[in-house]
Structures are given as structure tokens and as C-alpha cells.
């Protein structure tokens, strides 16, 4: 094998795969190094299996409500083990698909953990040849190694699961504590609740989803509570003892919670351990690799993209950073990533999604007297025939001088699909008048966005 390439990519996740295939499409000779499974966080233990679990966990609610719609059920039973197995089978299929796509794109896959050996070289502990290290050489190196879950250093922390572990289970205990208030905590609390697990969410602060619009996040909290999730705010776990199925959590040094399992959804950290960045003095801060607006590190031929740079840790952002890197370095294009109007969704039940600014940010940036806020709060039609306190909440934030929509928020079914469309219009500079002059589509939830007075 020839170990010389134009580009070595470290990490075959969302960003690395996109960059490698795009660079190879321009004729670059590309190697991609992966220590785990091709596909990375999103495909193997993130977005994809998570969303499949979300779909699966919604059936309990459908079954519960079915009689109100005239569906007579004689018996039904939720079997998480079957759902988990089917999800893992789908992940296996996608993993193989991504390996095939690399081959079709003429990208050489090297299996093993890579580390920097010099400005133009990477050493890989090969998985194919045991304990044998191979050295690869390239003009450019792209670091796309993603992140890993991080959890508090407390006695018994290893008894806790992270989101990675959830996908590997055969089933779940009757009671689970979810620690955290971010994306993963809210999504996994809803998934488990939907699968019939009694969920308690332990939150260190006083709100869910710190960087989201507070009012929208509070509406989500109320909907989650009404679906059976219990919240305990201002609470920190100090230690865990026992064994899975029978854990005892000491909380706030003065109380105990019994739980079958605990999931730490307490954030993620860039995964730079073992990369040997010191070898060429690649600059980092707070564990993240520092990059400029073209994703170059302080070493001019070494670049970094995706979660390892800890900018906006989302799959579409990592993919776009990868493609922009490849366009800039292997074609005559000169592009930048557009970080404005990145839509975000929490796949909770109901979904929460938004694009643009929160009310808190808008007040800070424009001043309270320079913004106008429109709201709609109602019970969705899909819940009219059933007993449910689930809410729909829509919110538009307008900057008065320009009349531009600067924030569009939604809590409710299909929020993520709707906000994706709102992101297009806001990226084009839509004003409140543009929204008002758009004909409504009835009866929908999103028609409220064009009829808000
Ligand atoms: C539970 C969960 C749910 C998520 N849901 C969503 C969602 O719904 N929507 C969304 O947009 N984002 C979601 N994300 C975030 C998204 O998965 C990440 O932002 C995205 O995967 C980052 O891509 P990346 O290329 O930077 O890194 P990754 O996808 O993490 O890929 C990095 C790869 O590098 C490999 N690697 C690491 N070190 C080395 C090394 N030294 N040598 C070789 N290989 C190495 C890793 O094994 C991994 O395969 C979710 C994340 C999690 C954890
Ligand atoms: N739907 C999506 O797009 C999606 C889904 C999952 C993850 N992600 C990405 O992955 C990233 C990581 O997700 P996440 O939910 O782990 O992180 P997060 O940063 O969204 O939330 C971490 C939470 O843990 C809390 N926390 C931190 N340390 C704690 C401690 N010691 N004790 C108690 N609570 C503690 C924080 O206050 C916060 O509420 C997200 O920021 C997001 O970029 C995206």
C-alpha cells in the first residue's frame, strides 16, 4: 500500500465523511482514519438511532388515544427490546452503506486510532494488523474527531449511563433518573417516558434548555410534566451506589433517590485525548481545537472541523464545514460557512424548534423597546378528542426598525419540519409583512405564523 496522500482525514463521522468525499470528487487522493465505526456520532450513537427511538416511543401515546378515534384495541404491549434491536440493525445497515460510499468515492479507509506524528504525518494503530502502527503522509491533515460525553466526577459515576449506553441496552428498568437539562436530557427523558419508564429529570439549575427562549422552554417543561415526567430542579447528584437495577443516588447531600438506572446527559467534550496535538503545537482552549474562519488551525496545513472545534455541535454544521474545507482547498471555490440562522430542534415530545434569536438575546441586542413579540398558545387539533394537556406554543420576535423576523420559535408537533422552512425565509431577510402577506394553510398549527396579530 502507498502511504502518501493529498489529504488525511482523522475521523469518519458527519464532518470527516463529507470532507473526504468532496475532496476526492475533485481528484484529491484521500485517506480517512476511523478508530470506531464509520458513521460517527450521528449515525452510530446520535441523531439517527435517537430519532428512531423517538418514533418508536410515540406509539404508546397513539395506542392510549386510539379508542377516542374509534380504534378498538384488545391488547397491546410495549417491548423496548424489539425497538432497540431494530434500531441497531438499521445502524448496521447505515454503517455498511457509509463504508460502501467511501469506496465508491475513492477514499481509502484506514481502520484504527490516529495521532499526529508531524506536520505532514499521522500514525495509526491499525485494527487490521494487531498492535502494528503505520505512518501515513499527506500535504494536508483534517481533524474531525468529534466529541465524547462528559459526566461529573463523583463517587460511583461509572454506574451511570451516557446516551451512548442507552442504545446498547436490551431493555430498561422501571425507573430511570436523567441528569441534565439540555438537548440529550430532554430527548431521552421523553423517549423513556414514552416507552413506559417512570422518569425523573434532575436539573442543576432552575430551567430547562439554558440557551433556548425561556418562555418556550417553560412551555415544554409543562407539557413534559403533563405527560408524566417528574422534574427536580436545583438538584445535583453527589454519589451513586448499588448496581444497575437497584441504584441509590445521594442528591444535594441530604436526600436519596432510588432508581434502576441513571443517565448522565451533562454535556459533551471534544475528543482530543491521544491525538498528540502537542507534537506540532496545535493550539487548543478548553479542550477544543482553535480554528480561524476557514477552519485552519495555527499550523497552516492542519485543519479542524465539527464538534472537536466546539462551535455549533450539530451534524449539518459539521457537514457544511467539511464541504467548505474541501471546496476551498481542492477546487477554485472560495467559501465560508454561514453560521447565521442555524435552525435547532429538540426532539422532545412535543418537539421544540427555533431559528434566529431568543427573546432574551433580542432584548440584549436590540433593546427591549425595539422588539415586538407575537405569541400563539393553544391545544393542537390532534389532541381535541383526547385527554391531554399538551400545548402548542408559537412565538415570533420582530425587530421594529426593519420589521424583520429575528426569532421564530415553536413548540408542537412537527416543529422541526416547520422551522426548517421558516429558516429559509429568515435567511432571505423576511419581514413580518412578508409573513402576513403569505396565505395561511388551514387547518394547521403553522398557519398561526402568518396570522399573528
Ligand atoms: C445522542 C445524540 C443525539 C444527537 N442528535 C442530533 C440531532 O438530532 N441533530 C443534529 O444535528 N445533531 C445531533 N447530535 C450531534 C451530532 O451527532 C454531532 O454534532 C456530529 O456527529 C458531529 O460530527 P463530527 O464529524 O464533528 O464528529 P463525529 O460524528 O463524532 O465523528 C468523529 C469520528 O471520529 C472518530 N475518531 C475520534 N478520534 C479518532 C482518532 N484519534 N482516530 C480515528 N478516528 C477517531 C470517532 O470514532 C468518530 O467516528 C447528537 C449527538 C448525540 C450524542
Ligand atoms: N436535537 C439535536 O440537534 C441534538 C440532540 C442531542 C445533542 N445535540 C448536540 O450535542 C450537544 C451535547 O448535548 P447535551 O445535551 O449533552 O449537552 P447540553 O450542553 O445541551 O446540555 C448539558 C446539560 O447538562 C447540565 N450539566 C452539566 N454539568 C452538570 C452536572 N455536573 N450536573 C448536572 N447537570 C449538569 C447543563 O446544565 C445542561 O443542562 C448539544 O449541545 C447539541 O449541540 C443536538
Q: Output the CATH topology of the largest domain.
A: FAD/NAD(P)-binding domain
Classification by helices and strands: alpha/beta
Tell me the strand percentage band.
25-35%
Report the average pLDDT across residues.
Answer: 97
Number of domains: 3
| Distance between the ends | 67 Å
Name the bound molecules: flavin-adenine dinucleotide, nicotinamide-adenine-dinucleotide
**Level-1 CATH class name of the largest domain:** Alpha Beta
Report what the structure shows:
The protein has 453 residues and is an alpha/beta fold. The chain folds into 3 domains: 5-148 and 269-330, FAD/NAD(P)-binding domain (3-Layer(bba) Sandwich), CATH 3.50.50.60; 151-266, FAD/NAD(P)-binding domain (3-Layer(bba) Sandwich); 343-449, FAD/NAD-linked reductase, C-terminal dimerisation domain (Enolase-like, domain 1, 2-Layer Sandwich). Helix content is 29%, strand content 27%. The chain has helices at residues 14-25, 40-45, 47-57, 59-65, 80-104, 163-166, 183-194, 214-226, 315-330, 359-366, 415-427, 432-436; strands at residues 4-10, 30-34, 107-118, 121-126, 133-143, 147-149, 175-179, 198-202, 230-232, 237-243, 246-251, 255-259, 261-264, 268-270, 284-285, 288-289, 302-304, 344-346, 352-356, 371-378, 392-399, 404-411. The strands form 6 sheets. Strands 1-2-3-4-5 form a 5-stranded mixed beta barrel. Strand 7, helix 7 (183-194) and strand 8 (198-202) form a beta-alpha-beta unit. Helix 1 (14-25) runs parallel beside helix 9 (315-330), helix 3 (47-57) packs antiparallel against helix 5 (80-104) and helix 3 packs parallel to helix 7 (183-194). The N and C termini lie far apart (67 Å). The protein binds flavin-adenine dinucleotide (FAD) and nicotinamide-adenine-dinucleotide. Residues 152, 179-185, 187, 204-205, 210, 236, 265-268, 313-314, 345-347 line the site of nicotinamide-adenine-dinucleotide (NAD).
